[in-house]
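MODEL INPUT / OUTPUT PAIR
PAIR INDEX: 1
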Amino acid sequence: MGGSDHMGRLRSAACTSIGRVRENNEDNVQLWQQDGYVIAVVADGMGGAAAGEQASQIAVDAIQTMLNTYQTDSHVLDERPDEQIVSIILDAIRKANASILRRATDDPELRGMGTTMTVTFARPNRALIAHVGDSRAYLIDSRSKRINQITADHSFVEALVAAGHLTQEQAEEHPMRNVLYRALGQNEDIDIDIYEIRLRYGDRIVMCSDGLTHHVKSMEIAAIASEEGDPSTCCDKLIALANERGGEDNISVVVIGAEIGLAERATIELQSLDLSVDDTLVLKNAADQTKLDPLEGGEDETMPGSSEN
């Protein structure tokens, strides 16, 4: 799907902060805004300062390599069907996992390195999300303002919550809340969750590392994402709030907003005016300046069938 104003478009931003306690940033976040789609990745490294930084960087580099391979002048990644895009992203994540395992084997000081990895491929009307670990992707509905956590946390504590052994409130304070049962760098074979979501005008996807969710509740994320139109400002406000509340971990945020073009916006605004189909078609054409023929003649000439007072 294209990214012109007539087909809808996406606005996005990404930012990261070391926080107020850590001496290094083991998070890596990256965003690629292309014509017609957005790819974003959030990776939260673990295993110690150098190990965590390298692991999360490997995750981001894997997506960059994927883009270098499949996004060419002769073949745009967005033109591929969803099934192929999912396969390409899965392959990139598996390669990142293998690369992390090799790096840890080659350097004993890096043993135990690993990272979460959440990847979003978004078009204006839908998104594909691949996920390993406990970084998160949320969807904020533009109409209800409700927030839904798309991804599942691959942590032992969340597994206990799902089994009914812990409440969500107990999980938030549990001493093992950061222990993961699935992450890149743990095993050669890795299970990757895949999600597909539909997007409507005004919807927001928020991706983040757990440095945000340790301090900012989901309803607060929804409120800021709904009220702040600019994705970059939204990212800044979320990170600032987490830092104000302690900033105990690195904090990374991506915001992707689904928007519509001039024609679609005008059509929505005029739905209550009982326009005919032909009227709406004219309105769509009027929003596309390439479909308007310039009027001939000077400014004092009148159109046929018109009269002057």
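PAIR INDEX: 2
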Amino acid sequence: MILYHLDKWKYKEVWPPEGSLFADGRWNKPGQWVIYASPTISLAKLEILANESNLPVKRVCMTIEIAEKVDVFEVTQKDLPANWMEKPSPGSLIDYTKQFIESGSILMQVPSAQSYREQNYLINVRHPEFQKKVRLLDVSAEPFDIRLK
């Protein structure tokens, strides 16, 4: 499986990304070391645009390969509270990430709040087989078209 993670240019040499160690997100609290990733670059961009007030500049795209046989912890829209897409998101979403980490899976599949019929993934960086099952394939500039904002 190939996934994409967008980050600020200044973090282009940081692997694995460390943002979730210091900041909370819809699915994590600070300290839960996960990488947010999308199956397409366009969905990854949509996720960034939804969380930025200005057009992002100097972004980097990390192309990530996940080994074929990994356990995936799946969260479906039916599992979630009705207000799961709101901002700020309900704190109960973090419970899914806690369960995911405790499950021993490397990947958690979640619905995208920007396109709920599509999926995003969280990668468990602290998983004991992370180095064997997750590989950084490429890091490259990923510009945003100025017409997007």
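PAIR 2 NOTE: The longest strand covers residues 59-66.
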